[in-house]
Amino acid sequence: MRIAICEIGRRMYDKSLVAATDGNISVRTDGNVLITPSGVCKGDLTPDMILKVGLNGELRGGNGLPSSEMKLHLRVYTSAPQFKAVIHAHPPYATAFAVAGATFSPLSYPTSYAVLGEIPLARYAVASTDELASSIEPFVTAGKQAILMENHGAVTCGESVRDAYYLMERLEAHAKIDYLAKHLGGARELTEEEKKRFLKLDAHNDTPVSHHRLTADY
Ligand SMILES: [Zn+2]
Fold this sequence. Notes:
By secondary structure, the chain is an alpha+beta fold.
């Protein structure tokens, strides 16, 4: 699990989803949480740097300081126990929307919508505070897995660290496409008929599209 966290950290850094020492990754394992340390570039993580904490934030293993956004991660696990991994990053296009106080049109890019659903924008709160954790809580409690954080960045929650990472990568791809489309005159809205058909059925086998999140290759 520690190796997986380091590998995902490297991907996040290599894909510029974070800069310098920004961003954090955690995985829940029974009553413990493995979490990245504070102040280390996600491209430079090694397994021995990963810390183990309890659900109240008490240090249970490792040396150094846990991520400064630990409260955000722990709030996800205590309010939505179905999630086993959390990633927080500052992907440039998605964060640009969040800094502008905006989110993107959910159905402008249906294949992304099938995986991410509607992307909420959590109200602004100061980094690393309880208020920041509270700002995302209603969304994760409602099962949202990809959330923009106003004037800050994004958080994704998944069934595994890889799942949470793919959500972050897709979120950024969708934000970039939406941004580029805006500069080409704006995204074409689906017609009501197209929306209805898309929301109701998967083209291949008549299953609601939302059931295909983990297997989609649209
Ligand atoms: Zn941040």
